[in-house]
Amino acid sequence: MMDSTTDVRPSTLESSLNNNIQVLLKESGGQHASQKGMLRWILQRKLEADPSCSVALIRLLVKELKKRQEMIQKTQSFTHVIPVLHTLYSVVIKSGVMIPTSLFQTVYDRLMKLLILPSPYSTVARSTMRSIKMEITTPGSLYLRTVTAEQNLRKEHHALQEKVFVLADPAVFSAPLEAAVRAHLEACNFLRDAPTMERNVLQRVLQTGLGMNCQSSRLAQALEALEEPVVETHFQEVVLAVEKSLKRGAEGRANYLNELQHVYRDILSASKQDGPRLHPGSVRSTAMPFPGINFLLWREEEDLWNLLAHFACSNSASVDEEEKDNRDSVRSRDSGIVRDLNDCVDAVTSPVRNHAPAISRRNGYKNSSLADKLSLVKEKMEACPGSSPLLDENRGRHTARVVVLGDDRVLGRLSRAYHSIRKRESKHLILTNKLNIRLYYIPVTDGDPSLSSTGSPCQDGGTLSLSSLLGRVDQWYNSNINSLGAAISKLTGKQANKSESPMQNHYILDTLCDYLRCGTQPVNVPLYSVKITRSGSEGPPAVVEEVFVSHLEADIPEFRHLKGKSSKKASVRPKKPTKVFGAVISVSYTKISLSRRQVVDGEAFMICGVVVTSEPAALTSGVNRLDVMFDSLNPVYNSTIKTQSITIRTLEQRTLSVCLDKDSRRTYTDVQRLDIAPCLDPICDISPRRSLVPIVDFSKYLDKALSLPIQTFTGVTV
């Protein structure tokens, strides 16, 4: 009787889990993303409610990987490979029970066979393999490292920390929505108690590593009975054991398990002497806790720099003591004048420094050191597609995870802020040696089809074009993240219902955390610089240098009314085209060709507007390009060109009104000339201006174009 029962339950459990997996994979390949993220979340909650099902779930996912590999050999279809890999990783890191080593070895062998696949599938498989190998040699290490970093727990042997900054665009977030999202995201911060977290980590690591040799309920009672200093001591012992085991590899597994056994016995023996006792059936919850989240409306561009600089400098002592000594004095390269400077304090208290220096000299300048230049080169090389992620392991840098909420406009603002950060770092390192900066994007729209101010050239042609791009190159992003915006917009109605606590619905928080932990592959979205020459009432024309990521729209204000009349007449009855005016702009651009040297010059007739959109290489034939559409009163003159750089000049003293990334807040009027080209990464300008010793110019080996790296689940190799 006992045998039949034990045989039936696993069969029933596996059947139910298999149905969940098949439905999830089927929905992830569809066109609509309304319920996809919810299906993944339901499977995740089932795992948290019954951790024992993780073993069966891993077996099913391994079988699914085998099935997908056989399908690839027959049809060359890579569908569902990424969703299965990320689901597998999520189960491994969230499993609260001991996974048999033999099962882990089976997973590892299956992943090895996926390394022959093209990128990005092999890249994600390799990343998952590294995590599996960590769990084979050091069970519980993934959980411990993730929680200690996210919760900023006190640790002597693994001092790296993480912080999550969620920046929302005030153009999209109304006051009620901002309050609702803030309450929802920051509610988890009140539940973060360091001693409780340390007890949870001890419970999880010990029961994962010791398996049947650990009595979970008894351990939970013992941990609750211990004083906080004793818990802290055992916590540090386990952290040290994990780090030593990871350094030794497979040879350190036996010693690691012995050390866990000693810690387990010490906790049980210490709890017998004093402390309260829990109910005999009580077991601590070891589910993955939410990280601390800092939410704010992104009103000023400098806010991002201030947040990152404060985070970097407040933890600089634990990252690099030598860097602090090097910052105590900054030497002028040409004069020998030494002045003390605390970069971190200046970076936070005065992000924009327009004041004249106390000591100045004509043609004097301050260059960053050679060591700083080489650090920037190394950082740039590691960011290149195809570089090994192992280069980024144990770099001794904290991690800042920046999540932006909004539509295309917030990514335009992020692009400009990111370019500004790179420009500052090229002059003097403050963040690069201390922080890994990871950028995430969750599309949220207010649903208003027209937010442009009156008279602005910006018109809504789809304010989520970049999220659509990311969804096309990453189906798992499309399933889980593109569907999250609707849930965020509905928080206002839920907040009005006082009977429902923000913590009762964890869907948004769980999905956000899954994105932060599993979204490790960047999609590099190209940035473009635009030099805007504006006519001045007095003196020479003013030049403004800007950056955009997706969209530039320009029109001639005096022809807007003609365009409106023309469109109305065309809708009634087409008439013979009439030439209202001649050439109003001249155009010079480089035609996309094999040589990339063919320059085309010409004039555009009867043009009332120009729309420039970015087409990343991920969606083209391997070349980042711009699609430039000329809008004319006469449809005969409508045209589109494809280029990577273009110059547009107005004729007959006319001017343009220019809007960047569909953001009316970034509108420029009285524009006479536009020079658009791929944005160059400021850190690539690393050759010294003056040096007595010949230095190799590494910049010629780097991709000098600057891209915005948005973290996704798949990533794109260009």
How many strands? Answer: 18
How much helical structure, as a percent, in the residues? Answer: 40-55%
Biggest sheet, open or closed, and with what strands and sense? 6 strands, antiparallel, barrel
User: Which whole number gives the mean pLDDT?
Assistant: 79
Shape summary: elongated
Distinct helical segment count: 24
Poorly predicted ranges (pLDDT <50, ≥5 residues)? Answer: 1-8, 319-342, 349-366, 388-394, 448-456, 570-580
Radius of gyration: 29 Å
**Content of β-strand:** 15-25%
> What is the CA–CA distance across the termini?
60 Å
**Oligomeric form:** single chain
Q: Name the strands of the widest sheet in spatial order.
A: 10-13-14-15-17-16
Structural class call reads: alpha+beta
Task: Please provide a written account of the structure.
With 718 residues, the chain is of the alpha+beta class. The chain has 24 helices and 18 strands. Strands 10-13-14-15-17-16 form a 6-stranded antiparallel beta barrel. A hairpin with a 7-residue loop joins strand 8 (528-534) and strand 9 (542-548). Helix 3 runs antiparallel to helix 4 (81-94) and helix 4 runs parallel beside helix 6 (121-137). The longest helix is centred in the first third of the chain and has 27 residues, at 2-28. The radius of gyration is 29 Å and the shape is elongated. The model is unreliable at 1-8, 319-342, 349-366, 388-394, 448-456 and 570-580 (pLDDT under 50).
